[in-house]
Design brief:
heterodimer; A: alpha+beta; two-stranded antiparallel ribbon; 55% helix; 22% strand; elongated; B: 186 residues; alpha+beta; Aminopeptidase; seven-stranded mixed beta sheet; 7 strands; globular
């Protein structure tokens, strides 16, 4: 795995994670899980919020 | 800063502040700020730990009307960020985000954040993001993630923020306890 650095600005632009980096893979799987939970809660909120328009 | 934006509500509990609004063509939008969302990963990054909030938003269409470009969505979300910072935080606030990959549209979402970056003269917002490619071990599929942060250009801690985010990127590519990714002679 490697990190690609933009030499001019010296800021990281890209990271490539290899298949054996379980730490990174678990981290991003956790982000996915958090996003699924957030989407569920947000959709329920929006359904409630938008239903008020019908009043 | 923007002359017009949609009306919104603000709700909060101990960890989260949530804003909700709807657009002129029946799209509902939730914008959320959560303080402790990433704490378990930020112990070694004190500025991000103290000043970081997970920032996310979700929209849902409630009519069959065809979607059109709506500049008021951006100005409303910007207004919401301003409101959040003035009520709950300050210029040292760092909004941490990652683009949802669950529907495969993470690249579109990243483009949205990049468009925001181009409006820096209007907003004074600074964005730092990285593209992360992961090759999963089970099926060898390649997934691209976009993670990043948004803060104010005049954040007095902006150099620490950049330095810690860079260090976090270095950390995430390191083998865990040296017991994986070991280089072996083939």
């Amino acid at each position: 795995m490697f990190v690609l650095i933009n030499q001019k600005a010296m800021s990281i632009k890209k990271i490539v994670i290899g298949p054996t980096n379980t730490k990174a893979i678990k981290f991003f799987e956790d982000l996915d899980r958090k996003k699924v939970e957030f989407n569920k809660k947000a959709e329920a909120k929006l359904n409630k919020f938008m239903s008020a328009k019908e009043l | 800063m923007y002359p017009n934006f949609y009306s919104f509500t603000r709700e909060e509990d101990t960890d989260e502040v949530q804003y909700t609004f709807s657009t002129g063509n029946d799209i509902g939008v939730v914008v959320s700020f959560v303080h402790n969302e990433y704490d378990q990963y930020l112990a070694e990054f004190p500025t991000l730990l103290e000043h970081g909030y997970s920032f996310g938003f979700m929209s849902k269409k409630f009519s069959l009307e065809r979607s059109r470009k709506d500049d008021l969505v951006f100005s409303t979300i910007y207004q919401i960020i301003e409101d959040f910072v003035s009520e709950d935080a300050d210029k040292t606030t760092v909004l941490l985000y990652h683009c949802d990959t669950n529907d495969g549209r993470q690249e579109c979402r990243n483009k949205l954040f990049s468009n925001w970056e181009q409006r820096v003269k209007e907003t004074n917002l600074f964005k730092y993001s990285v593209e992360v490619e992961i090759q999963k071990p089970d099926d060898q599929t390649l997934t691209t993630y976009y993670v990043g942060l948004i803060t104010f250009l005049d954040n007095p801690r902006i150099e620490s923020v950049k330095e810690e985010f860079t260090r976090f990127c270095y950390y995430i590519v390191q083998p865990k306890n040296g017991n994986c990714n070991e280089v072996t002679d083939q």
